Q: What sequence folds into this?
């Protein structure tokens, strides 16, 4: 790097963007790319990845071509650039031919600083030939983890981006992502032909975010009491899996005095745009959304992100929680998760289209998520460890603040597992958690009578634990791989290869104590 590129970058930063200094690795990345080098950039959400390609696009001769999968956001991104005087445009499938022709003309005339392009455009030969007729300052590949087949967000169109290196060997390329495990990082390097690139890996830690995970009891009440006691009047995002849950939760919160609005793909696009605009503009708006919400939204003072359903992967969870506290001020990532989440997700995986490898991948993502939920050590350590970064216990997560007591759950596990085994061996039957717990607690339900399960030798041997505590045991055994959800689609439970050691007494089982944690926090909502 030279002094002139460094000062040109700094001059651009202050003149165009109005900032007076670079943050973190930004200056180094920018100098490297201005100098013509390739770069792989791993930085958490909010760290400022965009400037890493925007500034070099302005300093270098020609147009910066930005590949982004977020077509819905291109328009906003381009408007934001135009607002600060950058000549930007996009090419994607939502445009009509005249609009496209105008963009193409501007590009060929060398009048664009930035051109956002959808990945599927770049796999077409005609687009590549068109780009070749102009001057390219650099290629920026945003959300680069989408090239990873093992990641959580694979997009086949990204595979075609490997060709950029062959076709434009002299044009620098910069790949950026906010979520990459070590394996995904390797895959990005390999699949995008980034062998010569310089790698910039920022710490993924977001120290101002407090991570907390509670067992799900009455989730809406838990959520309300969390918001009331800690984030009254704050802006936040609540994530749920289904549109139905989104609607109902938003209604419930609104009826209880929270300024909450629903957001999901089933709503009219005008309404969605209004909702998003209100969230950005007004203070203290809470959006209840499916995962569709939040990508690319730059609101620095989101004070909390809540998950009321279990996210499908740690990557997804990290990305979503990362939308809290971009301003660096204290924020909370709160989640409630329960046994039903596990059962439901297993079912979805079993029923998902795609081959066995695909289901295994989904399964591995779920397992990592469960491990985070059930850990007895620091959540942040677990999270950062997942992304290949070592750290010390953080002092700012629930397990650090209130270390969970653990207890010897070996006998409880044996009682549960032997009930599963007996039903299977003696009666050729399989059941879900609810009925198994009824048997252990000796609860005379209709089903118990029907199947004469009061005659089982494990009938009523588990009265020392409450129903909720038993559900906790089941959840933790699932997370530890000592119990599994059968793939029959009914959520019945079966033992695993590792269960035998527990049943024979050669393996002890440590479980975390939890039930009372819910009741003591925030008053209402415990069950
Ligand atoms: P990312 O893409 O990594 O999630 P963004 O590029 O959207 O992050 O940047 C997040 C916010 O930080 C934006 O509002 C951006 O303008 C701001 N920002 C980035 N770099 C700087 C800087 N050097 N000085 C001040 N603000 C910055
Ligand atoms: Zn911690």
A:
């Amino acid at each position: 790097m030279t002094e002139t590129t460094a000062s040109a970058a700094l001059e651009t930063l202050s003149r165009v963007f109005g900032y007076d200094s670079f943050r973190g690795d930004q200056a180094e990345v920018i100098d490297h790319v201005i100098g013509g080098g390739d770069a792989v950039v791993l930085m958490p959400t909010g760290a400022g990845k965009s400037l890493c390609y925007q500034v070099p696009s302005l300093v270098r001769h020609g147009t910066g071509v930005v590949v982004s999968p977020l077509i819905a956001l291109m328009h906003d991104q381009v408007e934001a650039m135009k607002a600060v005087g950058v000549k930007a445009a996009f090419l994607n499938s939502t445009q009509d031919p005249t609009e496209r022709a105008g963009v193409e003309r501007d590009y060929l005339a060398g009048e664009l600083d930035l051109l956002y392009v959808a990945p599927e455009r770049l796999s077409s030969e005609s687009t590549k030939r068109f780009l070749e007729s102009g001057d390219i300052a650099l290629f920026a590949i945003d959300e680069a983890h989408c090239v990873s087949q093992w990641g959580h967000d694979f997009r086949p169109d990204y595979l075609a981006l490997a060709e950029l290196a062959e076709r434009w060997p002299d044009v620098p390329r910069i790949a950026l992502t906010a979520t990459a495990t070590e394996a995904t990082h390797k895959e990005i390097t390999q699949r995008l032909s980034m062998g010569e690139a310089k790698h910039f890996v920022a710490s993924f830690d977001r120290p101002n975010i407090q991570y907390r995970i509670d067992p799900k009891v009455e989730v809406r009440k838990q959520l309300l009491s969390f918001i009331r006691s800690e984030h009254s009047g704050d802006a936040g995002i609540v994530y749920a899996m289904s549109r139905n849950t989104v609607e109902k939760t938003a209604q419930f919160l609104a009826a209880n005095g929270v300024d909450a609005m629903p957001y999901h793909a089933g709503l009219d696009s005008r309404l969605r745009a209004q909702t998003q605009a209100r969230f950005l503009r007004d203070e203290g708006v809470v959006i209840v959304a499916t995962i569709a919400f939040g990508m690319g939204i730059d609101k620095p003072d989101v004070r909390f992100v809540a998950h009321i359903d279990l996210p499908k992967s740690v990557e997804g969870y990290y990305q979503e929680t990362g939308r809290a506290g971009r301003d660096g001020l204290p924020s909370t990532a709160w989640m409630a998760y329960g046994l039903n989440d596990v059962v439901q997700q297993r079912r979805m995986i079993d029923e998902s289209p795609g081959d066995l490898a695909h289901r295994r991948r989904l399964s591995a993502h779920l397992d990592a998520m469960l491990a985070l939920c059930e850990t007895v050590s620091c959540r942040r350590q677990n999270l950062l460890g997942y992304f290949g970064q070592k750290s010390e216990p953080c002092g700012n997560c629930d397990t650090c603040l209130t270390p969970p007591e653990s207890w010897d759950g070996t006998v409880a596990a044996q009682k549960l597992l032997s009930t599963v085994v007996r039903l299977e061996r003696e009666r050729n039957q399989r059941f879900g958690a609810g009925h198994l717990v009824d048997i252990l607690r000796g609860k005379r339900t209709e089903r118990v009578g029907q199947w004469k399960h009061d005659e089982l030798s494990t009938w009523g041997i588990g009265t020392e634990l409450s129903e909720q505590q038993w559900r906790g045991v089941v959840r933790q055994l699932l997370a530890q791989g000592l119990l599994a959800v059968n793939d029959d689609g009914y959520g019945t439970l079966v033992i695993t290869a590792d269960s035998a050691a527990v049943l024979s007494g050669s393996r002890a089982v440590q479980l975390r104590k939890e039930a009372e944690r819910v009741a003591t926090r925030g008053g209402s909502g415990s069950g």
